Amino acid sequence: MPISSALSVRFTEAFPDHVVAYKDSSGDWENTAAVIATAPGLSVFPASETPLAKAMALGAGGCISASCNSNITAMMAMYEAERDGDQSGADTLQPGLETHRKAEQEEGSISGLKSLVAHRSNDQRWLNLRPPQMNADPAAGARLATTLPH
């Protein structure tokens, strides 16, 4: 259910002690930017690290992303660089975040992440997923591992 910037403002005005943050899973950058601009008291979190730099420049609180499970160190470094005004550092980190995110999406977020955990831990039980998911591809973890910073 999309939440428009106008509805975000209405929520924050009507329930200021309860509506304090919003995860925008729309994938629509224009909507995310509009919510940040029109509801400044609302901490907005895009659902991907891909727009993290530009979202934080507008006042976003960070991001909530499945990739945090596999790339948190680089994402935290990016967040801290943006927060501290280190645009050069943020610009250096952004391409790596995008590379990993794209690879994760191509592998399938759930099965790809499970395969990465199996690869890192050498515990093949992580490859077993419950229906309706298909079991994870064992090779996906090794492929994803190459997209992470060393």
SS content category: mainly alpha
How many H/I helices? 7
Approximate strand percentage: 5-15%
Distance linking N and C termini: 38 Å
Strand order of the largest sheet: 1-2
Q: What's the helical proportion of residues?
A: 55-70%
Uncertain residue ranges: none
N-to-C SSE string, H for helix and E for strand: HEHEHHHHH
Tell me how many strands there are: 2
Biggest β-sheet description: 2 strands, parallel
Rg from alpha-carbon coordinates: 17 Å
General form: globular
Q: How confident is the prediction overall: mean pLDDT?
A: 92
Polypeptide structure, described:
- The structure is a single chain.
- With 150 residues, the protein is mainly alpha-helical.
- The chain has a domain at 1-65.
- A two-stranded parallel ribbon has the order 1-2.
- It contains 7 helices and 2 strands.
- Helix 3 crosses helix 4, helix 4 runs antiparallel to helix 5 (87-107) and helix 6 (109-121) packs across helix 7 (138-145).
